């Protein structure tokens, strides 16, 4: 197998994995958004990123369609289920909002790494038309990671203050 053929196979697999990853992200963020009560800035940030993630899925589907490929229903289902389970697990934590912030920060960096790898395989496979779409997804993930990073201290401070005042602080 030549390099271009191998790169195309790796690229298509990576696209399917990224599609499942973005579905997983939605299954993590939506329950968080539905439960947030005391963190309006965090709520607005998640709401915006859910819309961005929906756009990312559309862009990934566009690339897959251009290659006459489809997303993997099995991967999408499995990762969505694992994301929903992670969200459920954190909902039982007494510091749910802090735990979610930490997990979201880590997940955004996983997505950044996935898109950087996809961009590399697109270049190796000669899929230049996919690059602007993948770079847009990467840029959105980088911005979200930065917003989460900037919100970690204020979220933690708000959590402690609400807890100290006897108010519900976890969501």
Write up what this structure looks like:
Residues 50-77 form a coiled coil. InterPro entries: DUF892_YciF-like, Ferritin-like, Ferritin-like_SF, YciF. Keywords: Coiled coil. 84% of the residues lie in helices and 0% in strands. The protein has 171 residues and is an all-alpha fold. It starts with a helix and ends in a 7-residue tail after the last helix. The model has no long low-confidence stretch (mean pLDDT 90). The longest helix has 34 residues, at 131-164. The protein contains 5 helices and no strands. Helix 1 packs antiparallel against helix 2.
List the helices and strands and how they pair.
Blueprint: H1 3-35, H2 40-66, H3 73-91, H4 96-125, H5 131-164
Q: Helical element count?
A: 5
Largest sheet: none
The N- to C-terminal Cα distance equals: 52 Å
Contiguous uncertain segments of 5+ residues: none
Mean pLDDT: 90
**Total beta strands:** 0
Tell me the Rg in angstroms. Answer: 18 Å
Structural class: mainly alpha
Helical fraction equals over 70%
β-sheet strand percentage: under 5%
Pfam families: DUF892 (PF05974)
Coiled coil: 50-77
Keywords: Coiled coil
Protein name: Ferritin-like metal-binding protein YciE
Descriptive keywords:
mainly alpha, 5 helices, 171 residues
